[in-house]
Amino acid sequence: MAWLDAELRVQGLTRTGEPTVLKHWQISLLWRVPTSGGPVYLKAVPDFFAREVRVTPARAAGVPGAAPPVLAADEGRGLLLLADAGTDVDAPDLPALLRHVARVQRASLPLLPALGLEDRGPAQVRSRLADLFSDEVLLVGEEGGLTPGEAGRLRALRPELEAALTRLEASPLPLTLGHGDLHGGNVVERAGEFTLLDWSDACVTHPFLDANAAYLTAHGTPTPPEDIAAAHDAYLSEWADLAPLDDLRGLHADALRAGELFRALGYVDNIQPHVEDPQEWRGAHLEHLRKVLPE
């Protein structure tokens, strides 16, 4: 805790109690720290997620609402000291949240050259389909894995998915900074303003692959399809200077399916090869691949 206390002193703060562990697993450790100025948060990440320590300060400083204010960062140690940015959002204003996501994506463009992030755009996702659809990755016939029938149905969709990714690649939208794991648990709100959390999966990608309102809805409460559609239209309106709305809707429909491949690769490439106990994350990607299959 020496690093924490020293950085708090730099901010004119003192610790008023022992940190409370909020999350402790193989990919991060998060504490809430009581201080003389209110709670702050200390996050530690392993080497394979060091990008979060690099990306978060740039986002916080350069793009309002993209990340919590950063009080201190040490990439060598994998440590972030973050100010409190708000509370969890149980029932967000989905159109407002999706507009916020689009504005954050567009505002990120000047930051990309300095961040040195991996490419997980449409072309890269398409190039990984053979690996992603292999028996080994699909865990075909193993406990929790896809059945041979499910694997066959998924592989039969490959031409459609490749075509969707090709259309996204050819679209007039630029590649932006991708969050990689954008869901309701990674959003907080204060006074009607949203802030995005947890940039450990940050990458460069097509913005639409990252924008699915179904992942941002109220926890445990089904959201009517018309509300999801309205939120997506609000999101797309932020890109209407680049293409007609009907064209954007078509591209976004492609991205809703291809986005599940994008999210699955986040587990397959960035977590499963690196954690000490791969069993914890062994089948996490399959939830997304199953969503590609027609119901």
Give an account of the 3D structure:
It comes from Deinococcus terrestris. Residues 49-245 form the Aminoglycoside phosphotransferase domain. Pfam families: APH. InterPro entries: Aminoglycoside_PTrfase, Kinase-like_dom_sf. This is Phosphotransferase. Helix content is 41%, strand content 15%. The chain folds into 2 domains: 1-83, 2-Layer Sandwich (Phosphorylase Kinase, domain 1), CATH 3.30.200; 86-292, Aminoglycoside phosphotransferase (APH), C-terminal lobe (Aminoglycoside 3'-phosphotransferase, Chain: A, domain 2), CATH 3.90.1200. The strands form 3 sheets. A 5-stranded antiparallel sheet has the order 1-2-3-5-4, with helices on both faces. Strands 6-8-9 form a 3-stranded antiparallel sheet, covered by helices on one side. A two-stranded antiparallel ribbon has the order 7-10. A hairpin with a 2-residue loop joins strand 8 (187-190) and strand 9 (193-196). With 295 residues, the protein is an alpha+beta fold. The model has no long low-confidence stretch (mean pLDDT 96).
